[in-house]
Specification:
CATH class of the largest domain: Alpha Beta
CATH architecture of the largest domain: 3-Layer(aba) Sandwich
Number of domains: 2
Helix content: 25-40%
Distance between the termini: 35 Å
Strand content: 5-15%
Largest sheet: 4 strands, parallel
Strand order of the largest sheet: 3-8-7-4
Mean pLDDT: 88
Number of strands: 8
Order of helices and strands: HEEHHHEHHEHHEHEEHE
Shape: globular
Length: 281
């Protein structure tokens, strides 16, 4: 019998934890193997920076009830050096700087950050959430996203948080918007207590996807920009005028979707548009 609905009993005694794990074994949401949710990461990557080690520890702590130790060690966090605009990571060591692509043609959005490279266990977890309806992953992944964003500066500097919307057709097919689920985890329900006062409001009725587009998987940067052009619109321009907006999505591949959103938001005089995602392809 698998325990899918609740995290493992790591705060109980080791004896009780062993009994519970024997009776109700946990199955890793990444690889599918049975695992001990009390197993902890003993150390972070010694070659990483302080930032990447912090992300590794945070990923380990938040995903421990859902992901086995082996899969937790697969995360490749994004720290310095990375592009100061689009957030693409650079190999090696050094300081953050603009990448050649952003120097050649700066994106319309102002800045992007991601938790880690879109590979390994992070990629499998995002796929599980989106395509296998493992919605229980939205809360731990969403809280991970919020924790990492706070490492980059105060989230209260934004006026609005907007999950990248799905077209109504895709919404009916999937049944939920994964970006909205991730963001909703930041705001506890009334039964869990008041929402954190430092968080700006999340809005889902301003930015709309007005044109259905085929999947962007496998398309290059130019093709993605062509397909996504004109796919978004703003319903109430007055609500975004002079506002700083944080867009939330699950993955950033080329930045084409974020640019399409930023273009229409800035057309209606949004002051700033940043992007935050779990994965960076």
């Amino acid at each position: 019998m698998d325990r899918f609905s609740r995290p493992g009993p790591c705060k109980k005694s080791r004896l009780m934890a062993g009994v519970m794990n024997a009776l109700y074994p946990s199955r890793c949401r990444s690889c599918g193997e049975l695992f001990d949710p009390c197993a902890r990461l003993q150390g972070a990557n010694e070659k990483g920076t302080d930032g990447t080690r912090w992300i590794e520890r945070t990923f380990d702590r938040m995903m421990r009830p859902w992901v086995c130790l082996t899969c937790r060690t697969e995360l490749v966090p994004i720290g310095s050096p990375q592009c100061t605009i689009c957030g693409v990571p650079f190999d090696g060591v050094g300081v953050d700087h603009q990448c050649g692509r952003c120097l050649e043609k700066r994106p319309i959005f102002d800045q992007a950050h991601s938790v880690g490279r879109y590979a390994g266990s992070l990629r499998r977890l995002v796929h599980g959430l989106k395509y296998q309806r493992r919605v229980e992953l939205a809360r731990p992944l969403g809280r991970l996203l919020l924790s990492v964003r706070r490492r980059f500066g105060r989230i209260g500097h934004y006026d609005l948080i907007i999950p990248v919307p799905l077209h109504s057709k895709r919404m009916r097919q999937r049944g939920f918007n994964q970006a909205a689920l991730l963001t909703s985890s930041w705001y506890p329900s009334s039964s869990q207590g008041d929402a954190e006062v430092s968080l700006p409001p999340m809005v889902t009725d301003i930015l709309k996807r007005v044109r259905h587009t085929p999947s962007l998987t496998g398309l290059n940067r130019k093709e993605r920009r062509t397909v996504i052009r004109g796919a978004f619109d703003v319903t109430e321009p007055g609500r975004i005028k002079d506002r700083a907006i944080l867009l939330i999505d699950d993955v950033c591949t080329t930045g084409a979707t974020a640019d399409a959103c930023a273009k229409v938001l800035k057309k209606h005089r949004a002051r700033r548009v940043d992007l935050l995602t779990l994965g960076r392809a």
